[in-house]
Amino acid sequence: MKKSTRTGWILITLALVMGVWIFTSHNSQADQTTNAGLVLSDDGSRLKSYQGSGGSVTVPSGVTTIDAGVFANNTSITNVSLPSSVTTLGSRVFSGATNLRSVTLGRVTSIPASTFQNCMSLTQVSIPSTVTSIGSQAFYGCAALGSVSVPGGVSSISANAFGECNNLTSISASNSFYSSYDGCLYNASGSRLILVPPGKSSISFSNNLRTIGAGSFSYNRNIRTVSVPSSADAIESGAFTNSSVSSITIPKSVVSIGSQGSWKPSELYGYQNSAASRFASANNITFIALDPGSGSSSNSDNGSSSNSGITNNDDPDQPGDDDDSDSDSNNDDPDGPSNDNNGGSGNNSRNNRGGSNSNSSRKNGSASGNASYNNGGSSANGGSGSSTAGGRGKTYNGKDYTPKTADTDLDPRYAMCGVLLLLGIFVMVSGNKRKLTLVSKEKKEN
After folding, report:
1. CB 345 within 8 Å of CB 315
2. 95 phi and psi, to 5 degrees?
C-alpha cells in the first residue's frame, strides 16, 4: 500500500474513532430525572426539560442554568421557584405557560427574550437585583400584571418588553438609567418619557419633561386626550403611532414634531406659525388656533391626559395588525431646566397645556438600539423589582436583539472529526491521482 493511501486511511480511521468516542461520551453523561419530573444534566447544574404533572414546581439548589423553553407552553404549572444558584435563563423559558401565576427568579442576570410571553395569569414576579437587562417581549402579553418594579441594576429595557400588558398601570424605577413619574417610565433625569403603560387611562408628567419619545404611546389604547406641557420642546417620530389619542394640544415650546405614521387625531390645538400648525397642515389634521384674539380658550400651565371614558381593551391587537408598532429612537439631547408647571391628572379641557410622555433622553440618558432603551443618568439605587397583578393580553414572536443564553450548541469536537475525515479523503485522492498520472505517462512512453 502506498504511503499516501496508508496516511489517508489512518486519518479516516482516526476521525471515525473520535466520532464514536464523542458520541458515547455524550450518552454516558446520563440525564437525571427527579421525582418532580425535572430533567437535569448529569452534574445537576442544568435544567434541561420538565416532564412533571404541573402545579407548584421547585427547582433544586445547585442548578445554575435553565435551558431555553423548559416550561414553554406548559399549561399545568402554576408556581415556579428557582433557587439562588440559578444565574442564567434561556429564551422563552415560561412562554405560553398560561396558568403560571407567580415566579421566583433566583439570582439571574438577565430576563431574555420572550421569557414570560403570553403568561396570561402571571400576577407576581420578583425581579432580582442581579438583573441588568430585560429583553425583547420579555413580558409581552402578560395580561394579569398590574405593576412592575425595575431593580437598580437594570440598564437596558426592550421597547416592547411590556407590550400588550393591557392592565399594566404602573412601572416604578429609580436608578442611574431609569426613573418613573405617575407610573410611567422615564430616563434617569425625567426629561424623556420612555413608556406609558398600556393600562393607564390618565397621565401627569414629570416636571423635567422635554421630549415625548418614539413609541411612548404606541401600546396605550385608553388615553384619548393629551395636552403637552410647556416644558416640552420635541415630539419624536412614532410617539403617538397606533395610539388612541384623538385630541391633542401642543404649545409653542415644541419646535420639532417627527412623523407619526398613520396616526391622525381628529383635532389639534396649538398656535399659528408653530410646529403644531405646520404638522397639522402637512397631515391634513383639523387645526384649532389658541392665539390671543383667535376666539379660542386661553392656556393654563398644567398638563394632563385622560381616557375620556374609555376603558381597558381586553382583546389586544394581534401582531401584524396595522395598529401594532414597536418603534424606538436614539436621542441624546441636553437636559433642560426643571419646570414647576407640571401636569395633573384627570379630564383635560382644551385650553390646558398639558404633558405627554416621551421615549427620548437627554444629557443624562439615551434610547438606543433596534429594540432596547439604554439610558444614562445619575444616582443609582439598588434593590430588586417586582410585578403585580393586572389584565389580559396577547403575544407574538418578533426579532430579538438580546443574546440567547443557555441554548445548546453542537459539540465542536465533531467539527474536528469532520476535518480529519476530509483530510484523509483528500490525501488518498491526491495520492491516487499522482499514481494514475505516472501510469498514464509510462503507457505513453511505451
Report:
1. no
2. -55, 130
Give the tens place of pLDDT for each residue, 167-212.
Answer: 999 999 999 999 999 999 999 999 999 999 999 999 999 999 999 9
DSSP string over 155-167? -EEETTTTTT-TT
Distance between CA atoms of 43 and 339, rounded to whole angstroms?
A: 59
- Strand positions, DSSP E, 364-421: 372-373, 385-389
* C-beta separation of 311 from 317 below 8 A: no
Position 29 confidence tier, pLDDT thresholds 50, 70, 90: low
- Compute how many other C-beta atoms are within 10 angstroms of the C-beta atom of residue 298: 9
CATH of 68-175+380-407, one of 3.50.50.60, 3.40.50.720, 1.10.150.240, 3.80.10.10: 3.80.10.10
Dump strand ranges (E) for 222-333.
Answer: 225-227, 234-235, 247-249, 256-257, 267-270, 287-289, 305-306
Helices and strands in the chain: count of H runs, count of E runs = 3, 27
Of the candidates 219, 243, 185, the residue with the CA atom closest to the CA atom of residue 391: 219
